[in-house]
């Protein structure tokens, strides 16, 4: 069944300009000679597919970045099929035909951005793994800004879009350590169910003690600390993009109950779930 994606059209606003308060966001860009100030957000939207969802070949006048939040899908670009899941990010270059299709067994939920940047005809890679979750967090933030008053929201939207593009290009040219990327992808795919250190170590073929030492040396955190942050990130995303009560969000994210979820919010985010939801625009219909 053919489908459409619900979009917020940022190009209905007047042109927006870089935020002078956010230059540090772009310092990790792989090619600082490029004009990141020319990046412009055209559309931002959220897509939840049905099991039989698919889009035939299409092309756009701007680049399209797809951030997989949950589920799986395939995408065909220039005759190559990419099978992607949670933690993956796709880039459809401007004017390049592409087709998409959900996995019937695990329909996809994603965020998508239309980005204008004439200086970059195509990225160095059409798919990256967002192992640190930075692109996912930035995209969720950008989506949450969609209904704020346009004038003050423009500098934030511009800075977030530039940061997403810069982080994508960094990952395309400096991929994460394979062990960390593999472990974090497993966490993002299975965070809803109980997981122990043994489960994570098995994905890498290492003993749990060797895995723990190497993971901590490479990241500065233990695998279980990262898993807790991934679960908290998933809970925050559901809090911002749905009207689900805390008693439903907590078990969906592997966090037990609403009381444990609230404690983690206060400890890690210095706020409560209710305060975060109150100061964020309500979920956009569609």
Question: What keyword list fits this structure?
Answer:
21% strand, Arc Repressor Mutant, subunit A, 286 residues, single chain, 4-stranded antiparallel sheet, 10 strands, alpha+beta, Jelly Rolls, 9 helices, 6-stranded antiparallel sheet
Oligomerization:
single chain
Structural class: alpha+beta
Distance between the termini: 17 Å
Task: Please compute the radius of gyration using only Cα atoms.
Answer: 19 Å
Q: What would the CATH topology of the largest domain be?
A: Jelly Rolls
Second rung of CATH, namely the architecture of the largest domain: Sandwich
Strand proportion, as a percent range, falls in: 15-25%
- Helix count from the secondary structure assignment: 9
Tally of domains: 2
| Mass-distribution shape | globular
Mean pLDDT: 83
CATH class of the largest domain: Mainly Beta
Tell me the series of helices and strands, N- to C-terminal.
EEEEEEEEEEHHHHHHHHH
